[in-house]
Design goal:
The complex is a heterodimer. Chain A is of the alpha/beta class. Chain A has ten helices and twelve strands. Classes of the chains: A alpha/beta, B alpha/beta.
């Protein structure tokens, strides 16, 4: 049986892993390779590296560390950040990343999703969606969230974008629920359930993990394939082996390490 | 004068996981040579056929390199990985393309169903179906990392199966030819052990 995945997310800025609250006020958490190795050893099922400064600054991710991470670790990892073209993605995938995740550039030019799927297969193409509920009750997507001064609210409804990105060739969707991000009060179950109903490819929940029970809730109530978290792992408050043991007691299938 | 052989060729099939496969082998202490010339392949003691992408362009690339007859003549241990494993069979529904026919069987699109998402992405169990040195040291509850939308049916050549909606071949072997649908280079200790087993396999 396919296991539910636990994915530490490493936000990268200037070659270091950083963490913000509600996408702001970043503090340095440590060096990329050391954190990658630590999570691999702790039993993380996959890693995601977001170059959070790449898209707002209009540049692609610095690739030198991608190959260093690929040499070091033997679990899959995904790289995100300012990937705007097949050539950008090719450099990252050939450096050793297993998947690329596109977010703001896919909103700029949705056909990028199909171009990447044609070039590398849908299994390499992850679409990240930053989503926030507006005053009228609709969830809508946000662009350039790596830099609060550049973040833009779009008219595009999150649920419409979920459907459209799958049609274009997304092989996986990461839903970053910005309303719950960084505050550790639990994943946005309501929004994830709504997206799950429309999402036929693997769905990754992001934003809000604070306790082991939040992970059990998101797997059991929103039926997501994977749960992504950052600060709750980086702080050491919730060791992955302990979390996996807890999830097993809840009847949730996770990988043995 | 006979030309000097070398330990391990990784065939340059154009797939994006070639770097990862080479790094995994380097972690095991072997430096593979990336090979795109069939005359060079002929000097390798064993070979890996990696691959990520689609079956039709991958076969076209092997064709353009002149690798198809070289692989038909190949007598030493060969391991296909992911798409590289699928290419070992007769036919793929992905692009309706004829494959290398080194192992009998067909590759079909996996079917989605409630709770069964395609691509099949993540860690899934390996159920041993036949004893073989390639599965030496692999525990009954071992899991490997998969990411694919097409799969080969289970057959007498299956060494280990997995299940996602339906059972499919995870590890296969016929004579000197073997293949892994999962990514051993990204399957932590389980994958490293299978690669290590391949590096010492005599091709029987």
């Amino acid at each position: 049986m396919l296991s539910r995945r636990l994915i530490p997310c490493l936000d990268v800025r200037d070659g270091q892993v950083v963490k913000g609250v509600r996408f702001r006020d970043h503090v340095v958490m440590g060096a990329i390779k050391e954190l990658a190795q630590r999570y691999r050893d702790a039993g993380a099922d996959e890693l995601v590296f977001y170059d959070i400064t790449a898209s707002p600054e209009g540049r692609s991710v610095d690739r030198s560390w991608v190959a260093r991470v690929a040499r070091l670790i033997d679990i899959p990892f995904c790289v995100a950040g300012g990937i705007r073209s097949v050539d950008d993605a090719k450099a990252i995938l050939f450096a050793g990343a297993d998947k690329v995740s596109i977010n703001s550039p896919a909103l700029e030019r949705p056909e990028l999703i199909g171009e990447l799927a044609d070039a590398f297969g849908v299994q390499c193409v992850v679409v990240g969606i930053d989503s926030l509920r507006d005053a009228d009750g609709e969830w809508r997507v946000r662009q350039y969230t790596g830099d609060p001064s550049k973040t833009r609210a779009l008219r595009k409804r999150t649920l419409d974008w979920v459907v459209e990105s799958q049609r274009l060739g997304a092989g996986e969707i990461v839903l970053n629920c910005m309303g719950t991000d960084g505050v550790r009060e639990g994943y946005d179950i309501e929004q994830l359930q709504a997206v799950r109903a429309l999402c036929h490819v693997p769905l990754v929940a992001s934003g809000g993990a604070g306790t082991a029970s939040h992970f059990a809730d998101v797997f059991q109530q929103a039926d997501v394939d994977a749960a992504l978290a950052a600060s709750v792992f980086h702080s050491g408050e919730l060791p992955i082996p302990e979390l996996k043991n807890f999830l097993r007691t809840q009847g949730i299938e996770v990988r043995h390490v | 004068m006979p030309r000097k052989t070398f330990a391990l060729a990784v065939i340059d099939s154009g797939g994006a996981n070639i770097g990862s496969v080479c790094y995994a082998l380097e972690r095991l202490g072997v430096t593979p040579e990336l090979v795109s010339d069939p005359r060079r392949l002929a000097l390798a003691e064993r070979a890996i056929l990696p691959g990520v992408g689609a079956a039709r362009p991958a076969m076209a690339r092997l064709q353009s390199l002149g690798m198809i007859p070289a692989l038909h003549d190949w007598q030493r241990p060969l391991l296909g990985i992911c798409l590289g494993m699928q290419l070992l069979f007769d036919h793929s529904e992905e692009g309706e393309v004829e494959l290398l026919s080194l192992i009998p069987g067909r590759v079909r699109k996996m079917q989605d169903a409630p709770g069964i998402r395609i691509p099949h992405m993540g860690w899934n169990g390996l159920q041993s179906t036949r004893e073989h040195v390639l599965m030496a040291g692999i525990e009954p509850d071992a899991q490997a990392y998969f990411v694919h939308s097409y799969a080969a049916e289970v057959s007498p050549f299956t060494l280990a199966s997995s299940e996602h909606g339906q059972p499919f071949t995870a590890l296969v072997q016929r004579g000197n030819v073997a293949g892994a649908q999962f990514h051993p280079e990204r399957s932590a200790q389980v994958g490293a052990r299978i690669l290590q087993n391949f590096l010492t396999w005599d091709g029987q």
